[in-house]
Task: structure prediction
Amino acid sequence: MDFKEIKKEFNSYGLLLIVVGIVINWVGAFIAQTLKLPVWLDVIGTMLVAVLSGPWTGAVAGAATNIIKWVTFDPVGGPYFVVNMAVGLLTGYLYKIGRYNKKSGIIDLLGVTVALALISTAISAPITVYIYGGVTGGGVDLLTALFLGTSTTHGLLTAVIGSELLGDIMDKAISVFLVFAIMNLLPDKYFKSETQKKSAVEKKKR
Amino acid sequence: MLTNYIKKDSLIHKLNPAVKIFLALIIIFLSFLIRETYKLSLFSALSFILAFAAKIPKEFFKTLGFIMTPLLITLVIFHGILNPAATQVIATFYFLSIKLDGLIIGFNYFAKLLSFVSISYILIFTTNPADLVASLSKLGLPKQAAFVTLATIQFIPLMEEKAKKIMDAQQARGLRIIGGIIQRIKAYIPLLMPLILSMLDEAYERSISLELRAFFSKNKRTFFREELWRKTDTITSIILAVIVGGIIIV
Result:
């Protein structure tokens, strides 16, 4: 890992982007929680920050969102900060390797959705089962109850994985396409990597 | 609003934020480790006593009830009726049977949630966020993290104001925001994009002003808010340490 590169992400613009990301996440999560939707909507800001500034700022925005959410309206959200961090890191990485940017096509976008949904389910399902016993007070609980009630052979972990995967795919699809739409509306000056490239070119010219 | 701080004059409010942070972190950590229901309940009881000592019992129990009641209901349904691992049936209605060991598991999870939710509410209700951040940064929190925390608290009202302005502007251009539920959801899309874009604009401008004020200067900083360590802080932290230690051993 290149620590200098990571430190460069946390300049003043990166910090302010983290703030905006937290606010966007917080609003989305608040809407989803109050309406008891079976999605979380708490990674839109994380993904936006990860794309605009870099994976590590995205991860910090995600972790901070969960901690702030936890002290404001969602007392069970704390341990899930790992999930939000992973989403930030993965999105930033996918942007860096060029799978998820302004020009990516529909297949790339669907692939990004599936990758994000898989990683967040893989991390969040064990947390839900072993810390909370399967219940988190969100809309996904209804899905879990449905899976648990209709099948007699499967355990709690299977039911939680099933419901969270379903919820995660919906959630990540909404987030991926929304962030893609925002990316296409933004001028280049907001993308840190673009401005860095440009200034490097200008320096060479001089 | 983002902050739930309730201003009152009490012993708990005057306590140094560092004491409250450590207490909350220790109890949260322990409630993930401890499995016995009665020990977890004792931790919740400690938080309830602190709520009375902080003179905020009404707000505390109202918020706690609002958050914990749906969780209790779902946990009882999940583990008492649906959990396939439970076997001891105590009552049967038509095809649903309530199982005793499932109920015990459900209540154990509930006690775990209650113990760490109630202590975090004590911390939030009795500590001014600005004081919290100041004392955390004295304990070694990087200034970047302190800035992000406080700026987030500032940004939420700012965003509400912006959302109102954008809504007025779009209505002046003929956007219908009254009507059925689908009409209202549709109306949010032309509000969302300008809002996010203007927030990013704000962030860009603020980052320049942050640079201008030498935020990344490496000189030693002074603090506007001073939190003193008083004698009562020492006494209270010893008493709390004894209580928490006693609960672990019992």
Observations:
- The first helix of chain B runs from residue 11 to 14.
- The mean pLDDT of chain B is 84.
- The longest strand of chain B covers residues 89-93.
